[in-house]
Amino acid sequence: MKTRIGATAILLSMAAASLAAESPGVSRAAQVDGAKVHYTDHGAGENALLFVHGWSGDETFWAAQAYVLGRKLHVITIDLPGHGQSDKPQIRYTMDLYARAIDAVLQDAKVKSATLIGHSNGTPVIRQFYRKFPEKTRALVIVDGPLRPFADKAATEKFVAPLRGSNYERTAGGFIDEMVSPIKDAALRDKIKSAMLRTPQFVAVSEFEATLDPEIWRPDKITVPVLMILAKQPAWTAEYEQFARGLVPDLDYQTWDGVSHFLMMEQPEKFNAAVLDFLKLHRLAN
Questions:
Q1: Using CA atoms, how far apart are residues 19 and 13, in angstroms rounded to an integer?
Q2: CB 145 within 8 A of CB 118
Q3: Helix or strand or coil: residue 278?
Q4: Of 111, 207, 235, 245, which has the fewest beta carbons less than 10 angstroms from its beta carbon?
Q5: Are 115 and 50 in contact (CB under 8 A)?
Q6: Beta-sheet pairing, 137-143 with 113-119
Q7: How far is C-alpha 100 from the geometric centre of its chain's CA atoms?
Q8: pLDDT, average across residues 264-274
Q9: Phi, psi values for residue 113, rounded to 5°
Q10: 111-144 as b/e: b if 16+ CB within 10 A
Q11: Contact status, residue 123 vs residue 207, Cβ threshold 8 Å
């Protein structure tokens, strides 16, 4: 009888551990300028990996990373102000605001320093955080995002102008369709587009307008380790790689074939392995 009870207890313990490993993180909220900043906390500890989505995205774009890496490390996924479950006040959505929101989340989660992982327009976000809070930045991971603008101010303004119009869903939808078109999985394409179109128009436009600020593109050095993973495309030239290496002395520069802008969602196993290898190399996997 005792043997049966003991075996049952062991099985229940194993089941509980399995459920805990598979459970989602804890939904939490920090505050910045009186507005709620939603984030999900996976694990605990004074060091963390903090994932930042790109333009009009949300924390769910990192689901495959949070689920796997959150078993090994303290992982935080954030909804930047104006996105996902965070508040959406009628304000200007700037890189400084986003950097302060990240800092508020780290403070709320009792994290002293973090490796920041930014996708697309999340790249200038994490770079701005590094500028404002270098002592809290362990490393950066850049996922198909730029360290300099793709076009001059006039060309960018010409691109943004139609997004201010009354046909926002159609205009933004066409832009999003171009980004997701290389993705073979139709369900993933639809998921990304639906999530991005849920972001309010005024937030999406304001964030694009924030990229017109030349201050966020200053060519100041980044002295922490950086992993850069890019989807192979014409913009990422040999000259761009040289430019990036000039800004980042400790740079692991990778271009991947056969993936889209949302490479971490298309090939999560490969992406997660690359991040873990980078963290282990720099003794940051703790």
A1: 10
A2: yes
A3: helix
A4: 235
A5: yes
A6: parallel
A7: 15
A8: 98
A9: -150, 155
A10: beebbbbbbbbbbbbbbbbbbebeebbbbbbbbb
A11: no
Backbone φ, ψ for residue 250 (5° rounding): -110, 80
pTM over 0.85: yes
Which tens digit of pLDDT belongs to each residue from 190-229? 999 999 999 999 999 999 999 999 999 999 999 999 999 9
50 Cβ neighbours under 8 A, 6+ residues apart? 75, 76, 77, 78, 102, 105, 106, 111, 114, 115, 116, 117
User: Residues, the chain, total?
Assistant: 286
Helices vs strands, H then E, count in the chain: 11, 8
Structure tokens at 63: 């689901």
**Spatial CA neighbour of 279 closest among 119, 102, 138, 78:** 138
CA atoms within 13 A on the CB side of 252: 18
Hey, what are 141's tokens?
Answer: 């991971």
Find the DSSP H helices in 110-226. Answer: 122-132, 153-160, 168-180, 186-198, 201-210
Q: Could you tell me the CA-to-CA distances from 158 to 154, 155, 208, 226 in Å, in that order?
A: 6, 5, 11, 32
pLDDT in tens, 219-251: 999 999 999 999 999 999 999 999 999 999 999
Q: Is 272 exposed, middle or buried (0-12, 13-18, 19+ CB in 10 A)?
A: middle
CATH of domain 24-148+218-281: 3.40.50.1820
Euclidean distance between CA atoms 142 and 5, whole angstroms? 51
How far are the Cα atoms of 31, 41, 106, 141 from residue 226, in angstroms, in the given order? 28, 23, 20, 6
Dist. CA 64–CA 85, nearest whole Å: 19
Measure Cα distances from 24 to 20, 45, 74, 135 in Å: 8, 17, 13, 30
